[in-house]
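Input/output pair, single chain:
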Amino acid sequence: MSFHSMNRRTFLETAAAISAATLLTSKFGWAAETHRIHKVGVQLYTVRDQMKEDFEGTVAKVAAIGYKEVEFAGYFGRTPQQVRAVLDKNGLSAPGTHVQYDELDEKFPSVIEASKTIGIEYIVCPWIPEELRKSADIWKRASDKFNHCGEQCKTAGLQFAYHNHWFEFLPVDGKLPYDTLLKECDPHLVKMEMDLCWITVGGGDPIKYFNEYPGRFPLVHVKDIKKLPPVTAAGGQDFGDTLKDMTSVGNGVINWKKIFAQSDRAGIKHYIVEHDKPEDPFESITESYAYLSKLTW
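Output:
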């Protein structure tokens, strides 16, 4: 046998072995694929004071950190056209915007039109005011309202969603409000933007919900906490302004790799950093970006 023939035979045997190994890896999962976040987003509520003082400059600083997506919590007097121009100038997209509960009725058609101009995909209700939550049937009424908003969004080519806090995971008449929302809301009309910190504070398990309601969570808020506060069945806690233990992502107790390993099942498309009350907002979102941009699972 010639030297050339031996080399050719060796090459073919090696190629066959590699092909077989690749097939086995794919079939049995012996070598897991590495995942990462390709477009890290930020909720601009984190830098709300800076947005109020310098809208355009703040957005530019966010882009300079490395963020590719932003989520709005108000436009600070700018028109939809002006907002879109600032995004385009800084190479950003805005997958979501937060719209208050009282804007979901007569004002909602104008909310949809503004969102289309800006390039928004998801119109998100971030909060049900405490005074409304005292009503016994609020979660059923909210579900009906959300379904109606979802129908309007669908007609316009957009998607409606709801963002949780901690109180949706505290029982009301033996039921969790979050469970009521998921059951009463049409899964095609209303998606969930799960705040992964608040659900943890409220005693809920994100992965449990990902498994029970796959594909319902296209957006998540990513923020961390140093330690978990005590939670009771009573809904009177005001974590929103008094919680001091929030921190930049990666510096707290939340196991991000474990949660994000279920991203496909959850249906997560947008990972949005948020810190409700940072001492130094830009330092906080810079640290969070540094952590998430390198995180793999």
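The radius of gyration is 23 Å. Strands lie at 40-43, 69-72, 93-98, 122-125, 159-163, 190-195, 219-222, 224-225, 246-247, 270-273.
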